[in-house]
């Protein structure tokens, strides 16, 4: 009898222990809300980092194979395909489900492609210098940090260096969302043989920079005329009596401002870092908070379609009634959207004008071919400036 009780008691102990360790719904919920162990999370991140690094190396090896498949080419510029890069970046955006925003992932993949291309030879990109300009930022955004930037003294010089082959491509500003067209860029296309190969849209934040960082010290401000126009309202309200000195670029203004305590410059954050200046006002001072500048990438040839392209043309018209109608109607008939039109003196004869027109589509599209063929019958000359991928957000 005693033995039987002992057996029953011994069976009850494991059962009690099992019941005590059984995960009830409350315990399971507590386990889910328990904070992760930091060492475990870091181990997972390290493992993922190794996989990412291995995949980047694998991609770089395949990029070299692409170069070999193309055969022996003359220079790095011969390996560059802007339409292919645009397709890759659009796929990055289409695949993205967060938590990182599109802009961050596009930047990461742009740098990977830039480094892979530089295995052949870094691209040489001319831009309006000196170092620290928004044009340099546009170069980095479009070509990545593995490209070699060439700071030049003027927009005209950027065209000249690309045309001469000293730079593979150039990046030049063409329009600002608040201040309109950069006329010198359009005028260069009137005579230059170069083609538009791409576009870059850059948010432009203008800061007031000085050596001391004190607004009461400022007696004169250096800036590009566009920067003065973009900040005119703020300057009238806050520094109405300060002397405004126009210079060739905002970075040049920053370079000058670093030499005196009573001077300031209007420029971007990168110029502050390059020239050792402080922000006088911590917030940007441009009047338009969405201030954006569009840049064009210029090169020596046209590229195939990417699937989402823009075509820029230059049309020289005859001086006759209905001339503008003759320019626009072929595109309407063939269902082609016009994104932009602007007239400039043709520099060929007095009171004769040329129209710069941006169109949706590629010059190899059938509708575009038909529209351009019709247009040529009614105007003095049509010059295709380029067909290129629309800027990836």
TrEMBL record:
<feature type="domain" description="ACT">
    <location>
        <begin position="312"/>
        <end position="389"/>
    </location>
</feature>
<feature type="site" description="Essential for prephenate dehydratase activity">
    <location>
        <position position="293"/>
    </location>
</feature>
<dbReference type="Pfam" id="PF00800">
    <property type="entry name" value="PDT"/>
</dbReference>
<feature type="domain" description="Chorismate mutase">
    <location>
        <begin position="32"/>
        <end position="124"/>
    </location>
</feature>
<dbReference type="GO" id="GO:0004664">
    <property type="term" value="F:prephenate dehydratase activity"/>
</dbReference>
<keyword id="KW-0584">Phenylalanine biosynthesis</keyword>
<comment type="pathway">
    <text>Metabolic intermediate biosynthesis; prephenate biosynthesis; prephenate from chorismate: step 1/1.</text>
</comment>
<dbReference type="InterPro" id="IPR036979">
    <property type="entry name" value="CM_dom_sf"/>
</dbReference>
<dbReference type="InterPro" id="IPR036263">
    <property type="entry name" value="Chorismate_II_sf"/>
</dbReference>
<dbReference type="InterPro" id="IPR001086">
    <property type="entry name" value="Preph_deHydtase"/>
</dbReference>
<keyword id="KW-0456">Lyase</keyword>
<dbReference type="Pfam" id="PF01842">
    <property type="entry name" value="ACT"/>
</dbReference>
<dbReference type="InterPro" id="IPR002912">
    <property type="entry name" value="ACT_dom"/>
</dbReference>
<comment type="function">
    <text>Catalyzes the Claisen rearrangement of chorismate to prephenate and the decarboxylation/dehydration of prephenate to phenylpyruvate.</text>
</comment>
<feature type="region of interest" description="Disordered">
    <location>
        <begin position="1"/>
        <end position="34"/>
    </location>
</feature>
<feature type="compositionally biased region" description="Low complexity">
    <location>
        <begin position="1"/>
        <end position="18"/>
    </location>
</feature>
<comment type="pathway">
    <text>Amino-acid biosynthesis; L-phenylalanine biosynthesis; phenylpyruvate from prephenate: step 1/1.</text>
</comment>
<feature type="domain" description="Prephenate dehydratase">
    <location>
        <begin position="124"/>
        <end position="300"/>
    </location>
</feature>
<protein>
    <recommendedName>
        <fullName>Bifunctional chorismate mutase/prephenate dehydratase</fullName>
        <ecNumber>4.2.1.51</ecNumber>
        <ecNumber>5.4.99.5</ecNumber>
    </recommendedName>
</protein>
<dbReference type="InterPro" id="IPR002701">
    <property type="entry name" value="CM_II_prokaryot"/>
</dbReference>
<feature type="compositionally biased region" description="Basic residues">
    <location>
        <begin position="19"/>
        <end position="30"/>
    </location>
</feature>
<dbReference type="GO" id="GO:0046417">
    <property type="term" value="P:chorismate metabolic process"/>
</dbReference>
<keyword id="KW-0963">Cytoplasm</keyword>
<dbReference type="GO" id="GO:0005737">
    <property type="term" value="C:cytoplasm"/>
</dbReference>
<dbReference type="GO" id="GO:0004106">
    <property type="term" value="F:chorismate mutase activity"/>
</dbReference>
<dbReference type="GO" id="GO:0009094">
    <property type="term" value="P:L-phenylalanine biosynthetic process"/>
</dbReference>
<dbReference type="Pfam" id="PF01817">
    <property type="entry name" value="CM_2"/>
</dbReference>
<keyword id="KW-0413">Isomerase</keyword>
<keyword id="KW-0028">Amino-acid biosynthesis</keyword>
<dbReference type="InterPro" id="IPR010957">
    <property type="entry name" value="G/b/e-P-prot_chorismate_mutase"/>
</dbReference>
<dbReference type="InterPro" id="IPR008242">
    <property type="entry name" value="Chor_mutase/pphenate_deHydtase"/>
</dbReference>
<keyword id="KW-0057">Aromatic amino acid biosynthesis</keyword>
<keyword id="KW-0511">Multifunctional enzyme</keyword>
<dbReference type="InterPro" id="IPR045865">
    <property type="entry name" value="ACT-like_dom_sf"/>
</dbReference>
